[in-house]
Design a protein that fits this description.
Chain lengths: 226, 281
């Protein structure tokens, strides 16, 4: 089943001579449960693409379809709720809430949606990510790698349709990076979680089931399944 | 309808779905209300769904059983074929007969590997054999694997090297050795005569990594995603021996232990298979 699809996705910044085609007709299909990495240099359009996939920014033309729904037909308020329910984000700078402890951070998106956490599921995630002994800690008492593990747990806990990871190890040293990436890989398999990860690092991208290459706003290599 | 009543209806619907998710009974008594009718309808729908799911599960189990039966029933005749071929090879034969016996031995060996791999995968899948990870030394694991592969490697004058810290990780020694052997066996098989295979161990905080690097034929990018599927064989190696189950089994084993395998390869330059195993249970 195709969970995520883009059709002739374009994003143009500026006008006249200073026009920049950040995305120039991207067609991409992601199967449910797949781990896909999008690799490209800075300025290739990979971040723009990720922002479109997550409904953080609107395209100039083209569609993003998540679970059969064209997301840009939604109003801004609807899009916000769509993001909260359907997309889990893992950013380079973790984006944890500093005044909440680890457990509270993990279940925050579930609470925002007016639901109670599925305790067994959340416990399983916490165990898999090795966070059991850290649940009462505040984020600023954790190492970078631990903070990113909390962010991954938070993204998984609300059972999103897709997790979007933007350079998830960009702020970590190479040893810690390897552990965080391993956990991302293991959890994607264990929880059958669809993950789209963007990175500029070829080595890191090889972790995914499938690598898609982007250059000058276009998919140039790898297997795009489109 | 007043807002109060709408809210009440929504609450009740919410409760209904929560019950459905948790697998609790959905019907909250029976009366002539539409709500009660809806509950019964949803309950019937869920029952239908779960019957389909059960049926699929049952069918899958039957298929697994069939594979397991076939593999079992073929084991004894196969051992006999291997035995009699061996006896035949020891008797006085003409040159042509010798060639035939050699081919027979090779083909029977291939079939034997296929069947035993199938038995193992079907047992893993049906859960007859479970992997039981324990704390164990990576060096002991590698020693075991290297001893097994040495004869094949020296036949092709391939240098085996091992580097890295001696650490303890969390895995099932017997099954992991099997998985790792399949990977190292490929490395030796697809390397040219006189090549080398390096095994490097790296420890991280949560995982340990075993890299098996060869200087062999390499794998194209499109194929790296396919090589772990059952019975997949690359066109490029169709003249080599193999049945396409070794890597599949390896991946099943490593995944069952909470680890994973990653591959990085370049055509004609060689491949690195990285096995990641958890350090803790």
């Amino acid at each position: 089943m195709i969970i995520l699809e883009t059709r002739s996705l374009k994003k143009i910044y500026g006008s006249g001579d200073s026009t920049v085609h950040a995305l120039d007709g991207v067609n991409l299909k992601v199967e449910n449960g797949e781990f896909v990495s999008i690799v490209g240099t800075s300025g290739s359009g990979k971040s723009t693409l990720l922002h479109m996939l997550g409904g953080l920014d609107r395209p100039t033309s083209g569609d993003v379809i998540v679970g059969g729904k064209e997301i840009f037909t939604l109003k801004d308020e609807e899009l916000t709720i769509f993001r909260r329910r359907k997309i889990g984000f893992v950013f380079q700078n973790y984006n944890l809430v500093p005044t909440l402890n680890v457990y509270e951070n993990i279940v925050l998106p579930i609470g925002l949606d007016g639901n109670t956490p599925d305790k067994d599921y959340v416990d399983n995630i916490i165990h898999t990510l090795g966070l059991k002994s850290k649940l009462r800690n505040m984020p600023n008492n954790l190492s970078g790698g631990q903070q990113q593990r909390v962010a991954i747990a938070r993204a998984l806990a609300s059972k999103p349709a897709i997790i979007l990871a933007d350079e998830p190890t960009g702020n970590l040293d190479s040893k810690t990076s390897q552990d965080v990436l391993s956990l991302l890989k293991v959890t994607s398999e264990k929880f059958k979680q669809t993950i789209v990860m963007i990175t500029h690092n070829e080595e890191i991208s090889q972790l995914a089931d499938r690598v898609v290459r982007i250059e000058d706003g276009q998919i140039v290599g790898g297997v795009s399944n489109a | 309808m007043s807002l109060f009543r709408v809210n009440k209806v929504m609450e009740r619907l919410n409760q209904m779905v929560d019950n459905a998710i948790e697998g609790r009974p959905i019907e909250n008594g029976f009366d002539e209300t539409k709500m009660s009718a809806l509950e019964t309808k949803l309950s019937n729908y869920l029952a239908m769904n779960s019957t389909t799911k059960e049926k699929l599960k049952e069918e899958k189990f039957k298929i697994n059983e069939l594979i397991s039966d076939i593999s079992h029933q073929t084991k004894t005749p196969l051992s006999n074929i291997l035995l009699y071929t061996q006896l035949l090879a020891e008797s006085d034969l003409s040159e042509q007969d010798k060639n035939c016996v050699a081919a027979l031995t090779q083909q029977a060996g291939k079939l034997n590997f296929l069947i035993s791999s199938l038995v193992k995968t079907s047992r893993l899948e049906t859960g007859i054999i479970a992997v039981t990870p324990i704390r164990f030394s990576i060096n002991n694991l590698l020693e075991n694997v290297i001893n097994q592969i040495k004869p094949k490697a020296s036949d092709k004058q391939i240098t085996l090297s091992q580097k890295g810290e001696n650490i303890q990780a969390f895995f099932d020694p017997k099954w992991t050795a099997e998985a790792l052997y399949n990977i190292v066996d490929n490395a030796v098989k697809y390397s040219k005569v006189g090549g080398k295979v390096d095994i490097v161990v790296t420890a991280y905080q949560l995982f340990c990594r075993i890299d098996v690097t060869d200087t062999g034929i390499g794998i194209s990018e499109e194929e790296t995603t396919k090589i772990f599927s059952r019975f997949y064989r690359s066109q490029a190696v169709s003249n080599e021996d193999g049945v396409g189950i070794g890597l599949y089994l390896a991946r099943e084993i490593i995944a069952a232990e909470g680890g994973y395998i990653k591959v990085r390869s370049e055509l004609n330059r060689g491949s690195t298979f990285s096995v990641f195993l958890p350090m803790e249970g």
